[in-house]
Specification:
Largest sheet of chain A: 8 strands, mixed
Radius of gyration of chain A: 21 Å
Oligomer: homodimer
Number of strands of chain A: 10
Number of helices of chain A: 13
Shape of chain A: globular
Strand content of chain A: 5-15%
Amino acid sequence: MGGDHGPEVIIPGAAISLERHPQLKFQLVGDQKRIEAVLSSHSDLRSKSIITHTDIHIAMDDKPSQAVRRGKGSSMWMAIEAVKNGDADVVVSAGNTGALMAMAKLILRPVADVERPAIAALWPTVRSESIVLDVGANIGATAEQLCDYALMGAGMARALFHVERPTVGLLNVGVEEVKGVDEVKQAHAWLRDNDNLPINYYGFVEGDQIGQGLVDVIVVEGFAGNIALKTAEGTARQIAQYLRDAMIRSIFSKIGALMAQGGFKILREKMDPRRVNGGTFLGLNGIAVKSHGGTDPLGFASAVDLGYDMAEAGLVQRVTMDLTAFHSRLNARVAS
Amino acid sequence: MGGDHGPEVIIPGAAISLERHPQLKFQLVGDQKRIEAVLSSHSDLRSKSIITHTDIHIAMDDKPSQAVRRGKGSSMWMAIEAVKNGDADVVVSAGNTGALMAMAKLILRPVADVERPAIAALWPTVRSESIVLDVGANIGATAEQLCDYALMGAGMARALFHVERPTVGLLNVGVEEVKGVDEVKQAHAWLRDNDNLPINYYGFVEGDQIGQGLVDVIVVEGFAGNIALKTAEGTARQIAQYLRDAMIRSIFSKIGALMAQGGFKILREKMDPRRVNGGTFLGLNGIAVKSHGGTDPLGFASAVDLGYDMAEAGLVQRVTMDLTAFHSRLNARVAS
């Protein structure tokens, strides 16, 4: 029921994802009548879906704390509960991000003593894609939490990019000897010195290196991570605007742009946010994917694909194992 | 002597700026022989310059703390001292950022009980330019420091954009009810409720709004600010790469790109980092501008222009006045 359009986007999106992954099955949770109205024109999806009716749904502007208190029985709640009960492998929602995060944390519970689940984003790079986390689930992070993010992100990279030891970088600023990043420095030392981690630790990376695809996973606390993600989106839109303006400045530019439209099409596809739609909540006993609220069916399908790939790879089991091993080594070190 | 090229870039850069501002005078501090060798082919600049010789200079990789301890008598030190002594209005350097910051803080001293001078960057937007600070002088900031940044940035905006009450936004993340941004929330309350401030407070802005030119000044603590700046630079390079790749994919695209080269030229100029070269250290008893180390003469000239505009507008005097007034109101409120 979530997102700007509800079933009218969700269901065609699910249908696209089903074409790509015919083994998918769907549990559609929400207003039965609205769902059936759209589902009637997607017969393949209809035969692979069950509908779970509820009248209640979380509004896009509900506060997360309210949503958690009063949300029981809502479509979002029931969809997350389906994952908890083992009826579903993944929950995908285009709804209220904060509410989804809070509810997923409450219902699915964090794995392996993780204090703070994180939101991971797929970030397009000149090579392919990288995973950046945390992009806004929390503000600030301790050294241990940053290391947790590294392991969670690596689990996601393993599932999506099919590399056994993903490369991981820690986002930092370049100015030397600035004070106050003790957490980042401590995390750096742990990741560097801990040979047992199932990652290939690269070291520090700076903001301008994210888009270069230098590493599979980039770790940062959520305030700076959210600002980085939004700034990159804004810069992309800004340059697209510059480009449009520049191309209509003269008749030559206009004709040239027309002739080069195949090239511009490739550029648009490269920059299409729908290709990598979906933030993933990592660190929970279950997979929850958040699609952009304003996306279209193609974008929603990307979010479903993302959930499918992670579930198929056994992401939660692997990340739980890695985090448990890391925490016990860390505790042993502290105790000794 | 600083930057990747020293006098070979600095002096032609100063010559370009002199053409634009014939009333400029220069004190060139460094190795006399190297300076004279380049200056000989710039007769206009030569007649407007004095050379102050020194053998010592700060290397690009010297640690700031070392530079401060051992830097006395270096070209950087003497250039900053010229501002302190009133011999110069502005110091411009392409050298070691951390060393320049530390030395400028030590020699010029912060104004009006400012605890943390900040580095401000000019950020190109779809409208024109905005000022973003802090982009890396400090990590973290208290609510009072964020308000100081707002006033410093507003002073710079007044000098450069010629608006009496610049609009100011506070960079924040969009996720609701996230914890730990108490400083940002407190600064927001103070900026919103304090009618006496010489600014037009806009409220929170998010990372994707920076490039939209929504406000004249964007305030953020230095870790997230540095990451935002670097991420925007990286994203611009990444898209330029996409564009180049897309335009050589077919013969039509190549011909089209050739015809549209006027348009592409405008785009390149819009995105040219040399146009807005120069980070400014704000909150000191004097103006210090840091040019990118790897810039060319045109870029260095932009940094000199920046310093010229700020000195001409009486930036330091105005910012000192605004900060003193704000601090005394804040203290009165705390005392009452």
